[in-house]
Amino acid sequence: MTLATHQVTSEIAYDLMHEHLDTILALLQGPLPEAQVVEQLGSRRTLERLVRHGLVTGDGGELRAVASVYHQMRQEGMLSFLEHYVLPDLTAGIDGDGLAEVQTCYLRLTPAAMTALRGGRVQRLFDALTRISDQPARGALARATTMVFGTSRVSAEPLEPGEQALTHLRHAASQRATPAERDLAVLSQYVFLADHDRLLLARSAIADFVASFASESASSNQEANYHLTVASHWRLRVAAESEVVQ
Question: What are the C-alpha distances in Å from 161 to residues 90, 93, 102, 107, 157?
């Protein structure tokens, strides 16, 4: 399946995308009446800005997303997402704000495998999540986020899973900012709306992705030359308490 992708490159469009992501995710589910979108955004002026900067489109009183996938070129906010949402919710029970999972892998990869990771296995995971997001929804929908980051700057220190993730996220961000090393690091995030059934399918896709590295697993962090993390978060409380999208 060929996916229509919209590149979000301008600073203004990125900020609009960040501020109104739930509305754009809702439009990815299907067209919505203009009046409903204005109500959700809080003002017609905000809608006009989204249209003017190419994030949504519409005619005849209906609005829709401009593509199946939005690709944001900036990568800020991933550390905050991990620190403020994922890690606290790892131990959250039924009263928590979300349902989170972090999987970390110490690997032995060839240089070719490292540079092919983002455009290969990570992209195939995101394509699978796109197909899942297109599945019919039967229950309340809430934002589901999957973040994948990897780095060849492996910490040899013994770390708890949460610290492993934070440390290597910082290493990946630093490596992505270094031109000579940027192709060795991955720093990518995928966001969509999920009900319970979509969540189960997404977890299965993530499990398959992690399992694909089994033969490349390092016996210890001292022997590893690559560290990969997959962090996911579903806004459980929102899904339980409100219908985000009908």
Answer: 11, 19, 8, 15, 12
**C-alpha angle 113/115/121, rounded to 5°?**
60
* CB-based contact 228:105 (threshold 8 Å): yes
Map residue 201 onto helix, strand or coil: helix
User: Which residue, 161, 145, 167, 162, is CA-closest to 99?
Assistant: 145
> What is the spatial distance between Cα 174 and Cα 219, in angstroms, rounded to a whole number?
26
d(CA 26, CA 91): 29
| Backbone phi and psi for residue 217, each to the nearest 5 degrees, phi listed first | -70, 135
Backbone angles phi, psi at 151, to 5 degrees: -155, 145
- Crossing angle for the helix pair 44-52 and 11-19, to the nearest 10 degrees: 140
Distance, in Å, from the CA atom of 230 to the CA atom of 209, rounded to the nearest integer, reads 9
pLDDT in tens, the chain (246 residues): 345 677 777 777 777 877 888 888 888 888 899 999 999 898 899 999 999 888 899 888 899 888 877 766 555 556 666 666 566 666 544 445 578 888 999 999 999 999 999 999 999 999 999 999 989 988 888 889 999 999 999 998 888 878 888 899 999 989 988 999 999 999 888 989 999 999 999 999 999 999 999 999 999 889 999 999 999 999 876 555 544 443
**H helix and E strand count, the chain:** 11, 9
CB-hemisphere CA count at 13 Å for 19? 13
pTM beyond 0.85, yes or no: no
